[in-house]
Amino acid sequence: MFLASKSDIGQQRSENQDRVKIGMIGANSALAVVCDGMGGANSGSLASEIAHNAVYDKIAGNYRENADMNSIRNLLLTSVSAANALVYQKSQESEENSGMGTTCVAVLVRGKQVFVANVGDSRAYLLTPSGISQITNDHTLVEMLYEQGQISREEADSHSMKNVITKAVGVERDVETDYFEIENDCNFTVLLCSDGLYNYCDKELLYDTVFGQNLDEAASKLVAHANLEGGRDNITIALMAN
Prior knowledge:
The chain has helices spanning 43-62, 69-91, 141-147, 153-157, 195-198, 203-210, 215-228, and strands at 2-8, 18-26, 29-38, 101-102, 104-110, 113-119, 123-128, 131-134, 178-183, 189-193, 235-241. The protein has a single domain (2-135, 167-241), classed as Phosphatase 2c, domain 1, CATH 3.60.40.10. It is α+β, with helices and mostly antiparallel strands. Strands 2, 3, 4, 5, 6 and 9 form a six-stranded antiparallel beta sheet that branches. Strands 1-11-10-7-8 form a five-stranded antiparallel beta sheet. A hairpin with a 2-residue loop joins strand 2 and strand 3.
C-alpha cells in the first residue's frame, strides 16, 4: 500500500490548525486521520491535536487485522467518541478554550475494504478507474439547506456561509458520527482533505492529479495549487492507494 500526506499553513493564516496522521497499522491495513480545528487563540490547534492523536492511537492500538466488520465499525465510532470527550473536557477547563472543536475524518483501509468515520466538513473521496466520488457528507449549514431543497447545488458551492459547520468533535458532550463501508474489486485511492484544499480543487483536478500518479508529488501539487489560488485557509491532504 502507498501512503502520502502534506499539511500547509496556507497564505493568510498565522497558524496551522489542521492535523494529519497516516501510517500502516497491519501488514495489509493503513489508517489516516485528518482534523481541522476551530476556536480562538490556540484552541483550534489544541482541539485538532488532541483529536487526531486520540483517534489514531485508539484505532491503531486496538485494531486486529482479522477483526470482523462490526468490530471495525465499533472501533472507529468509539475512537471518535473518545476524542470528543477529551476535547470537550479540555474546553471546560478554561474560558479561552470554551467552544473549541475540530472536524475529524478517519479512514481505515484493509485490502479492498474502506472504513470511514466523519464529523464536520473535512472530506474523504474514493478514486477508482471509473472516476471520483465523495464518500463523506459535509456537516454544514449550507449542505443542510441544499438537502432540504432550499438552495441549488450551484448556490451551495458559492454560498457565503458554506464554511459554517453544524457538527464538530468536542463542541458538545456527545457527538453523532457518520460511518461508511465500501468494498472494491478494483485498485483505488482514498483522498482525505480539509476544506482548505477542496475549496480550491474541483473533483476533476483531484482525480487527474492523484489517480495513478506518485502520491507524494500529487499531494505537493494540490497543496501548491490551493496556495496559488489564494490559500486563505490551512491546507491538508492524506492519500492511501492499494
